[in-house]
Amino acid sequence: MVRTHTFRLGKYYIDQESNTIYGLCDIPDKYEKLRMVILGGRDFKSLVSTLHEAMHAEGVCDSKLHGEVDSAETIARFLWRLGYRRLDDPES
Q1: 17: which strand partners?
Q2: How far apart are CA 3 and CA 64, in angstroms?
Q3: Among 15, 43, 50, 83, which is least packed by CB within 10 angstroms?
Q4: Angle, vertex CA 21, rays to CA 18 and CA 22, nearest 5
Q5: How far apart are CA 86 and CA 75, in angstroms?
Q6: What is the DSSP letter of 31?
Q7: What is the pTM of this model?
Q8: Segment 37-78, tens digit of pLDDT
């Protein structure tokens, strides 16, 4: 399982939760140690959570992620149709 990843906005420490929270991504100017929380698992909702929070960490504006159309969900649906799935289950 990936524990850290460096995005455009900085190095994030990544935690995976099981359905307690949909996702979370710290804002760089408010936190010294950046944290990202994504859903664990192999389902479509987990893929959307991962892409959504990664896009936040890349600096994608909120209007693209929290508007009428969620760009992360649109991209996740495309990847899901192409067959992209997580190989391992991080909760096991």
Answers
A1: 39
A2: 26
A3: 83
A4: 95
A5: 15
A6: -
A7: 0.83
A8: 999 888 999 999 999 999 999 999 888 888 888 899 999 999
